Amino acid sequence: MLNQEGNGWTADFRGLTLRTALQPIYSISHKRIVGYEALIRAFDTDNAPVLPVQLFQLPASEAENLLLDRLCRYLHIRNYSCIRDELNWLFLNVSPRVAAGASHSDSFFGQLLKKTGLPPHRIVMEIVEQPTDNAERLRETVAYYKDLGCLTAIDDFGAGHSNFERIWNLSPDIVKLDRTLLTRATEDHKARQILNGIVSLLHQSACLVLLEGVETYDQAMIAIDAGVDFVQGYYFRKPTIELEGIDIQPADFDHLLSDYKQQTQVTLDPTRQLVSFFDGFFQTAIDRLCSGTGMQQACRELLDHPAVSRCYLVNAEGIQIEDTLISDAGVRNLDPRFKPLESTTSADWYRQHYLRQALAQPEQLQVTAPYLCVTGAYMCVTMSQGFYDNGQLRVLCCDILSNPMGTEISKS
């Protein structure tokens, strides 16, 4: 069913001609191609393209579905073996029905690799995330590919039926994030923070992370900021059936990373401005507290600032000493729906990173990135400074509303 055309191969199926298209996959840190995803392209007798979804609707039985899946993989490996590349990965899609239904001892793929001479460690088997009636068989199939020496990847994570339980059960080497996560992150800052969190969790699960569907400069910058390992998409290179010379045009990661470093520097500036601006306020408040002045009077300048939400004092064990002082700005931001969280008398803040930092480095003003404050479910930045009062270590903490941070402080 395969035909050689020049240096490449095509395949015949149900009157259609099948060709291999490759799309490069890039490592952001390495700034170069590290692999290619193989995609099937079908053409009718007039050489008009046929959509992949139409192609995969043609099989009339499970046996024919298995045949098409194997034919595509055979075609892709044949074509990839013709490329003068002895280093990078080839990403191959395997049908979920085939992966879940085939025996884990399926010898076809192992024989195929032997026949073509392509080392198994250069193959990444992609399995689309979707529910299956035979989760154990799917796990066995993934184990089979790993035993062959291939890498495994979960595809389209973040869409449909994605869940971390699948990650824990299958332990893939690579997780490909669905482009819908990127689309949402482009439109919504909160979704962007969630994307960053998902990437962090996947890394903690010992998975490398690939973000696909990167189509614009802004999306490329989001991918870089999210900390993903690999990127793929039209912004870098479209899939092509012209396989000769596919890897001779590198993407300009130097430009992207240079822009990212400049943008990150700008992003960090407000934090540095906070430390510079509030350092005097904190020192005044601490001096007053050490001289016996009460919290309300000691922190009056802090509480008068329109960006400050609240101030509170904590001991060396992380226990809050007095009631929280809420500023006028904090009162305006109180949401009655979260009233059960407002009282923080004797609250234990030791788990908070900003508190442990302040305890570990007394006399140095600490500042966090924006985060969700548990006392009112609003976004804030916390500043904290440890100090000694009559030999006892204390920490003065101050929450600053993150939304007005960039404007109100600069106007003050």
Task: Please specify the SSE layout and strand pairing.
Elements: E1 2-5, E2 8-13, E3 16-27, E4 32-43, E5 49-50, H1 52-55, H2 62-81, E6 89-94, H3 96-101, H4 108-116, E7 123-128, H5 135-148, E8 151-157, H6 164-170, E9 174-177, H7 179-187, H8 189-204, E10 208-211, H9 217-226, E11 230-231, H10 253-290, H11 295-298, H12 300-304, E12 308-315, E13 325-326, H13 328-332, H14 353-360, E14 366-367, E15 371-373, E16 378-389, E17 392-401, H15 405-411
Helix pairs in contact: 2-4, 7-8, 7-9, 9-10, 10-15
How would you describe what is shown here?
The chain has 412 residues and is of the alpha/beta class. It has two domains: 2-251, EAL domain (TIM Barrel, Alpha-Beta Barrel); 270-411, 2-Layer Sandwich (Beta-Lactamase), CATH 3.30.450. Helices cover 39% and strands 25% of the residues. It has 15 helices and 17 strands. It has helices spanning 52-55, 62-81, 96-101, 108-116, 135-148, 164-170, 179-187, 189-204, 217-226, 253-290, 295-298, 300-304, 328-332, 353-360, 405-411, and strands at 2-5, 8-13, 16-27, 32-43, 49-50, 89-94, 123-128, 151-157, 174-177, 208-211, 230-231, 308-315, 325-326, 366-367, 371-373, 378-389, 392-401. An eight-stranded mixed barrel has the order 3-4-6-7-8-9-10-11, surrounded by four helices. Strands 12, 13, 14, 15, 16 and 17 form a six-stranded antiparallel β-sheet that branches. A hairpin with a 4-residue loop joins strand 15 (371-373) and strand 16. Helix 7 (179-187) packs across helix 9, helix 9 (217-226) packs across helix 10 (253-290) and helix 10 packs across helix 15 (405-411). It is elongated, with a radius of gyration of 28 Å. The N and C termini lie far apart (75 Å). Residues 404-412 have low confidence and may be disordered.
